[in-house]
Amino acid sequence: MIRYALACAHGHEFEGWFSASADFDDQKARGLLACPVCDSPEVAKQIMAPAVAGTKRTATSAEGPNPEAMRAMMMEAAGRIRAHVEANFDDVGDTFAREARAIHEGRSEERGIYGQATAKEVRALVEDGVPVAPLPDAPPGKTQLN
To answer: Does 5 share its domain with 71?
Structure first.
């Protein structure tokens, strides 16, 4: 794995992990990279010193990624995704499967929707090639945290 220090055009800095150095260029060319803060697709590598193995290991080099920080970043991103969907897509409630299929087949207006579906309904949509994805749960409120 290769870790790059990245930044968007708005100055937000973050890290990206890639299995090979060419993967960054490939994903950028295909429009798959975006800033986790502002969703800007204008992402670039930052100058960084390579991690070179020496004879002495420091405590920080042996620690690796901070799991708590990673969890917090993932929850923040999930909250932003959910907020974007709720603000910009139509909530069709428990008619989600029927409406998604109607949009896919051209019988209903093309638009972003969200709602509820049973596991059986989701399986049938996926098998029929209807593009669906689970909506992340809303982040817990401060009163719900331990």
So the answer is: yes
